[in-house]
Design a protein that fits this description.
The chain is elongated. Helix content is 11%, strand content 44%. The strands form 7 sheets. It has a 22-stranded antiparallel barrel, surrounded by 4 helices. It is mainly beta. The N terminus is likely disordered.
Length: 981
């Protein structure tokens, strides 16, 4: 085999895939009808066997780089969110009080979970982007857009070829191999509300050398988008929540058990400080006074109280302050890729990839001391007496008049959200990933057959740091108790009492009354940096051998063998304040580390049964392919997985295909090895909360169990108005820990479908595939919410499950547990659809030169997604906001000369608000359909291309009342310039 032929084959791999994707934009990988003389053997994601056919037994979707340009995205994840089989993942707060996140985006095929979608770069694993103890997911921010040739998505399975995590499928980012020249790209955009600027710069440089035997390319790119607050968008600015509905009379009256309120607020506290006579969240304990920002007194309006902790309107803290709407993200990457042909048949390859992402959440941290929190939390209500030195004589007199006992020395209680205690509420996560890869690949002839081989070694490292400010509990308690010393100076009480043993010369007193009164010295004394560092290392060696085994009448039988060794290590190191347990309930966070290695052996076969000169009526070609993989994991043990598929070309233009595979996912280091730790945390949703007593998979069972609980504990108050404060605040002592007895989770996957490219309609492609996944022994993260739901949704109630949490005297969750079991089950049923038609419209008008028009529809139908955490609590989430039963995208692309115009529409159907939503438990059980339109245009001047576009042309909001059934960002404009030299 000559030097030119090996280079030609490798070039064909890239050029054919790119040409196919350019023709179809985001389309299944299918062979194009027409002249076959240009087809050469290539590797398509999902197999390591080189083949002429690009359509395989399992469905594969391909997206080219032009699609990114057409849609105005500046990082890979934003386009992945538009693939119909991928559940969108945005750094946006859900509106439940939870944070917007670290800015990372992880693919999640078919909604089976991000950990069940495997990410590859050039067919090889990439180091995890988050805490490696928690899994192997790769942040899309790390992928270099400038070097990206295409994205190939295996829809369903893949573990027999690639190993653990390939349950829902595989996403393979294929980089360019022969970039030559200079390409500079810049884009800037802004929303129609004059906020959310998005900027991106990119430079790609490449050169062939030594008579084209080698190529090296370098890519540098940067992008940035700002954060947003709830106030910045009409939907999130509503301050909407649901609370118990007193008009509800039964579970069959057609009246929701909850109602909407707007401008939701916490009536128990605000930034100035609300005064209570008794430290409990009871309206009757309000003194009716609050502090002014300057520290005086003013009447307090709690608003229209709706139970604990919410009110509508009034002077309490607005719900909008709990979390930011969207995290700001800044990313930078520097990547080099190259190859050099050492001989005609041996090639040296190399990759150096670096990515840095910083996610900034403006509301990541909070400081509060309220009546909703107990003293053990470190955030309990502040007791104060007339002796506090920051109280003016006038204020003492006013409080004494309202509460005579205060004048006699009895305490009052301050419930307060601090806007002025932390240096900033902003938190950040900086993640840096490095990957170096070197390899050799080539081919040789033996016994009149050609064989190809490769051997690569790589090391990937992720170094991350997450930090935010917190309150040093002990120092805060010292500083908030302020008195005057003998000289009349306001000091910390510990420095003015009779004992010198508790003195702290650094203590600066805190003035908690009002807003903006905490001094810089007090702030510096009472706050500390909290957070964590994580460090992941992935070492990988992969060797492959493939070629022709023997010749059959229908063609050569092909094979591929592979050996892979992988070592994964990770460590988690809390920052000093967290290790020492200085904040909150003062529970230390323990540093953790772990590692494992795997030895994996795999084999693939591709056997042509019919084809070539051997054909039958309605059987132009029939191919069988099979794969087997043996995995030996040092922690999770051994696992055998396999895959088998059949491709049947009925006649020219019609191909039927099907596959079946056994796939697996190994437990993560954190699931296995996390040390036991108890700390204050929120507990998620309480099934007995008045908002949810009519929900769940068995509403009658839940209601009956909660009624029995409250009947046995009258101190909890009425069930009809009960709201658990541990849902929104870190108020429960939650014990977390690993489970060393975990096993691999296993899935059985079936796909079958057809590809139709009729000869009577050149340019038309129709593809339909059915995907069925049954997962058992699922790695179920049992959270406090899961334990509570299983307890109250079961009859009889499982004693072991119900004992995993306790309640205090008011019914709030006091203690709970989080761990992982092999108890989960997942059942997925659905189809993917693609229809594309590329044609010259001018042919219908006298062969006028009207360019080329490309029309395509891509859709995913989820007919069933049933999950269970415990194995018996089955929940259907298909047809809901989380998993719409249909997701559809239509694209139209018109190219005429130097002009390229595109139009896109994303359609989300009418869905249920949640799996169990009815008018009895939700005032908005049905969420209306959502349709968004985007347009863009480009003009190619030769070396320069100018582009502009509008995303969400009609400024369509998410369907009410959601934030995610649509686009919360609204209309965005962008312009860009690309220069090539």
């Amino acid at each position: 085999m000559s030097y030119q032929s090996i280079r030609g084959r490798l070039l064909a791999t890239t050029m054919l895939g790119a040409a196919m994707a350019a023709a179809l934009s985001a389309a299944p990988a299918v062979a194009q009808t027409g002249d076959d003389t240009q087809l050469q053997e290539i590797i398509v994601t999902g197999s390591r066997i080189r083949r002429v056919e690009v359509d395989t037994a399992a469905p594969v979707l391909s997206v080219d780089q032009q699609s990114f340009t057409d849609r105005g995205v500046v990082q890979v994840g934003d386009l992945m969110n538009q693939i119909s089989s991928n559940i969108p993942n945005y750094p946006i707060a859900a509106g439940s009080g939870s944070a917007a996140g670290a800015g990372q985006q992880f693919p999640n095929l078919f909604g089976l979970g991000a950990g069940r979608t495997l990410t590859l770069v050039n067919g090889r694993r990439f180091v995890a982007s988050s805490n490696g103890l928690a899994g192997s997911s790769v942040d899309t921010n790390m992928i270099p857009l400038g070097l990206l040739d295409r994205v190939e998505v295996v829809q369903g399975g893949g573990a027999a070829v690639y190993g653990s995590d390939a349950i829902a499928g595989v996403i393979n980012y294929v980089l360019k191999t022969n970039f030559e020249g200079v390409e500079l790209d810049a884009q800037t955009g802004i929303s129609s509300r004059s906020d959310y600027p998005v900027h991106a710069l990119r430079g790609t440089f490449g050169k062939n050398f030594m008579d084209d035997r080698g190529n090296v390319a370098l890519n540098l790119e940067w992008s940035q988008n700002d954060s947003l607050l709830d106030y910045d968008r009409p939907r999130s600015n509503l301050g909407r929540i649901t609370v118990p509905n007193s008009a509800n009379t039964s579970s069959t009256d057609g009246i929701p058990s909850v109602k909407e309120i707007f401008d939701a607020r916490f009536w128990e506290f605000n930034p100035n400080g609300v005064i209570f006579t008794t430290p409990a969240p009871v309206p009757g304990f309000l003194l009716g006074q609050q502090f002014t920002s300057a520290g005086g007194l003013a009447a307090y309006n709690p608003g229209s109280i709706q139970g604990v902790p919410f009110a509508s309107g009034g002077d309490g803290l607005t719900y909008r302050e709990l979390a930011a709407l969207r995290t700001g993200v800044e990313r930078f990457s520097a990547n080099a890729i190259g190859h050099f042909d050492l001989t005609d048949r041996v090639r040296l390859t190399g990759e150096l990839l670096y990515g840095r992402t910083e996610g900034t959440d403006p509301y990541a941290a909070q400081a509060n001391n309220t009546v909703l929190n107990n003293a053990a939390s470190g955030s309990g209500v502040i007791a104060f007496t007339r002796n506090n030195a920051f109280l003016t004589p006038a204020t003492v007199a006013q409080l004494t008049a309202l509460r005579p006992a205060f004048g006699a020395g009895a305490p009052l209680f301050l419930s307060k959200w601090f806007d002025d205690l932390l240096p900033t509420r902003e938190g950040s996560q900086v993640t840096e990933s490095y990957r170096a890869l070197a390899g050799l690949e080539g081919d040789f002839d033996y016994a009149d057959r050609n064989f190809y081989w490769s051997a690569t070694v790589s090391r990937g490292v992720t170094d991350g740091r997450q930090e935010a400010w917190g309150v040093d509990t002990a120092r805060f308690n010292n500083a908030v108790n302020a008195v005057r010393n003998g000289a009349g100076t306001i000091v910390c009480a510990i420095n003015a009492d009779a004992s010198t043993a508790n003195d702290d010369a650094a203590c600066a007193p805190i003035n908690p009354f009002g807003d903006g009164n905490v001094s810089p010295e007090a702030r510096a004394y009472a706050t500390v940096q909290t957070g964590q560092e994580f460090y992941n290392v992935q070492d990988n060696f992969l060797a492959t051998l493939g070629g022709d085994l023997f010749n059959l009448p229908a063609g050569p039988a092909k094979f591929s063998l592979a050996y892979e060794y992988r070592r994964e290590s990770a460590k988690f190191v809390p920052l000093e304040a967290s290790q020492r347990g200085l904040t909150g309930s003062r529970v230390p966070t323990v540093a953790t580390r772990g590692e494992y290695d795997t030895n994996e052996y795999s084999a693939e076969l591709l056997i042509p049964i019919i084809g070539g000169d051997v054909t039958l009526p309605f059987a132009q070609a029939v191919d069988f392919e099979g794969a087997f993989r043996r995995v030996k994991n040092s922690l999770a043990g051994s696992e055998d997985v396999w895959g088998a598929g059949l491709r049947w070309e009925v006649f020219e233009g019609l191909t039927l295909r099907g596959s079946r595979s056994r796939n697996f996912r190994a437990p993560t280091l954190e699931q296995l090895l996390a040390p036991s730790r108890t700390a204050l945390a929120s507990v998620g949703q309480d099934p007995c909360d008045a908002d949810r007593i009519s929900g769940g998979p068995a509403p009658a069972t839940r209601l009956a169990n909660c009624q029995a609980l409250f009947a046995a504990n009258p101190g909890y108050g009425p069930l009809a108005t009960f709201q658990n404060p541990a849902e929104n605040f870190n108020a429960a002592l939650v014990t977390t820990g690993g489970n060393p007895n975990l096993r691999n989770e296993i899935s059985d996957t079936i796909t079958y479908g057809l590809i139709f490219q009729p000869t009577f309609a050149p340019g038309l492609t129709l593809v339909v595939d059915r995907i069925e996944v049954d997962l058992t022994d699922g790695l179920s993260p049992f959270t406090p919410q899961n334990f509570m739901e299983t307890c109250y949704d079961s009859s009889p109630q499982p004693v072991d499950i119900c004992s995993r949490f306790t309640r205090d005297a008011t019914g709030a969750t006091a203690t709970a547990q989080t761990t992982t079991f092999n108890a989960g089950e997942v059942t997925y049923r659905g189809e993917t659809y693609f229809a594309g038609y590329t044609f010259a419209p001018g042919r219908f008008f006298g062969d006028a030169d009207w360019g080329t028009l490309d029309l395509s529809i891509e859709a995913t139908h989820t007919s069933k997604l049933e999950t269970s955490v415990t194995g018996f609590d089955l929940t259907r989430s298909d047809g809901t906001v989380a998993i719409p039963d249909w997701t559809t995208r239509f694209d139209a692309r018109h190219v005429i000369g130097p002009v390229r115009l595109t139009y896109s529409m994303i359609y989300l159907p009418e869905v249920k608000a949640s799996p169990t939503a009815t008018i009895e438990n939700n005032p908005n059980p049905i969420i209306e359909r959502n349709i968004r339109h985007s347009v863009s245009g480009q003009y190619d001047f030769g070396k320069y291309t100018v582009r502009a576009g509008v995303i969400n042309l009609t400024d369509e909001e998410p369907s009410y009342p959601t934030r995610n059934h649509g686009d919360i960002l609204g209309r965005q404009y962008y312009v860009g310039l690309n220069a090539r030299f």
